[in-house]
Each structure stands twice: as structure tokens, then as C-alpha cells.
Amino acid sequence: MRGLGELEDSVMDVPWRSDEPMSVLAVLAEINETRELAYPTVMTVLDNLFRKGWVDRELRSRAYLYTPLENRDEAAARLLREMLEPSADLGAVLLHFTQSASDEQSEDCAGGLRRRPRPKK
């Protein structure tokens, strides 16, 4: 699964912030608070996101309602795993990452690893 382009990310940001399934019109209304997009553009982007596996949709009345299949953090983690899979040396990749990361980013990574549940034996 590929990452998101700029427009896809802008559209995807709206359902990620919502607790409820959203229609194209609802997504459009929120997006148009900060940038101007046309209804067919948002509809096409949501359809593409559905085909790419980023959102699910359900037909209610005569409109599709869209729901993210993962929250933003889960999607970012999946994309990171997909990027790391081809590497023969995960340790080297992580070392290069931490060398270029800010102290705050490095601490966030370390904190996440400390919170990781231990596998059951």
C-alpha cells in the first residue's frame, strides 16, 4: 500500500479527526474551511482512497459514508513497516534515522519502545 499524496492527505485528515462515518458533502464542508475544493474532486479522492484500502464506505440512503480503516498513527506505523521490510539491516536503518532525528523525536521513539507490550511466552 502506498503513502498519500498531498491532496489525499488533506482529504484523509477529515475522517481521521471524526468519530463518525462521513459523507462527501461533510468532508467537503470541513476542507472548504481552509481550502477551496469542488465536490467532484473530493468525491474522486475518496473513491481513490477506498480503492487503495485507506477507507471503507457504506451506502446509506443514496450517499456513501466513508470511515478510515486505520487511525493516523496505525497508518503511519504500517507505512514505516512497509518501508523497512526490504532492508537487510534494520538496526542500521534505525541508527541512520536516529542520527538525523531531533532529540524530541528520538525520545518519542524510545518512549514508544518502552511502552511496547512484551510478547507472551
UniProtKB/TrEMBL annotation:
<dbReference type="InterPro" id="IPR036388">
    <property type="entry name" value="WH-like_DNA-bd_sf"/>
</dbReference>
<dbReference type="InterPro" id="IPR005650">
    <property type="entry name" value="BlaI_family"/>
</dbReference>
<comment type="similarity">
    <text>Belongs to the BlaI transcriptional regulatory family.</text>
</comment>
<keyword id="KW-0804">Transcription</keyword>
<dbReference type="GO" id="GO:0003677">
    <property type="term" value="F:DNA binding"/>
</dbReference>
<feature type="region of interest" description="Disordered">
    <location>
        <begin position="100"/>
        <end position="121"/>
    </location>
</feature>
<keyword id="KW-0238">DNA-binding</keyword>
<dbReference type="GO" id="GO:0045892">
    <property type="term" value="P:negative regulation of DNA-templated transcription"/>
</dbReference>
<keyword id="KW-0805">Transcription regulation</keyword>
<protein>
    <submittedName>
        <fullName>Predicted transcriptional regulator</fullName>
    </submittedName>
</protein>
<dbReference type="Pfam" id="PF03965">
    <property type="entry name" value="Penicillinase_R"/>
</dbReference>
<dbReference type="InterPro" id="IPR036390">
    <property type="entry name" value="WH_DNA-bd_sf"/>
</dbReference>
